[in-house]
Target: (S)-2-hydroxy-acid oxidase
Amino acid sequence: MAGAASAINISDLRELAKRRLPRMVFDYIDGGAEDEMTLRRSVDRFDDFEWVWNSLVDVSEINTATRVMGQPNAQPFFVSPTAASCLFHPRAGELATGRAANAAGVAYSISTLASKSLEDIAAAAPDVPKFIQVYVWKDRGLVKDFLARAKAAGFTGCILTVDAVIAGNRERDPRNGFSIPPSVNWKTATQALARPGYLMDLARSPAIAPANFEGVDTGGRDVMGVINELFDRTMTWKDAEWMAQEWGGPFAIKGISTAEDARRALDAGASTVWLSNHGGRQIDTSVPVIDLLPEVRAAVGAGVEVIADGGVRRGSHVLKLIARGASSVALGRACLYGLAAGGEAGVTRALDIMASDVERLLGLLGIPDVSQLDERLLRPRAG
Ligand SMILES: Cc1cc2nc3c(=O)[nH]c(=O)nc-3n(C[C@H](O)[C@H](O)[C@H](O)COP(=O)(O)O)c2cc1C
Model:
């Protein structure tokens, strides 16, 4: 297979990423918690739903546009927040993804643990909606400053992630001797030496660190240590309410999994409910999001934005989530495989693949506007 531009599907980008990255870095993207049941089942579960379609509908014009956190978005999908993108593409990291999202007209959400500054990312993606994801530091002053800086830089939405107050048990990482930033030891050295191109990029690029918290003394902890020791495990709905007020704009709670919590999120001041199991990286054997959507949609009503993510590798997966009640869908690994495979061009390819899948399938389904898609065209697989 040649470069990222010639990838036919997301699985091709994954293969390219695997060839480009040292095993420990690839496994950090690709892996999940414990036996990786949630990770696998979230992808496989899409196959248990099958389409019927509308015949003889004029599909010469197809509208794929949606709104995400109240903002216009060219597709029913956008980019989910993921930590430390410079690990996957040492030179450009989040800037590469931001540029690709900007060209595709889709929103970009960045992690608390982003490896480029908010301001540089905003400059890389000037034309699309941008959201910040927040993990809550014990020191609330850090959170307040982060929110204020994000607002000043033009970020319009804030996402509070609530399914990762404790880091999940991702067994590939200790097996590979992996940490962020990577450290050199007998386990990691051979993996790194097997990927000289990546090593050269890493050597020529700034050290990988949470770029928006440069002044914070992390006591030499790696990212898992930061999550487990410097983020606040005492967080409750009261704190979510505080953050929603502090932000004062579109606010999502990410990592919701019950109808009851979806309603509580709205009561706490969230405008958007985000169903997620963190890409199978937290609780293993958690219920795939596609199964939760109908009950959550029924609980919050038709007018509330519900975002869904997890296991999305094809445009058909995006549309199945929409048909089951999601307003829009966030892409995690699909973009990360692209980023690792080819930087900006790789993310562009991932977003192009998804966009053409979505447009083609809407046409085949006889749905000229994605807003018309609902559960009537999707059936649980018989037998
Ligand atoms: C490598 C990696 C890092 C991630 N980092 C974060 C993060 O910092 N904050 C967050 O809210 N979610 C994070 N996520 C979860 C994603 O936002 C998203 O929920 C998940 O990847 C969706 O599943 P998918 O990768 O199968 O599409 C991360 C996911 C991956 C794969």
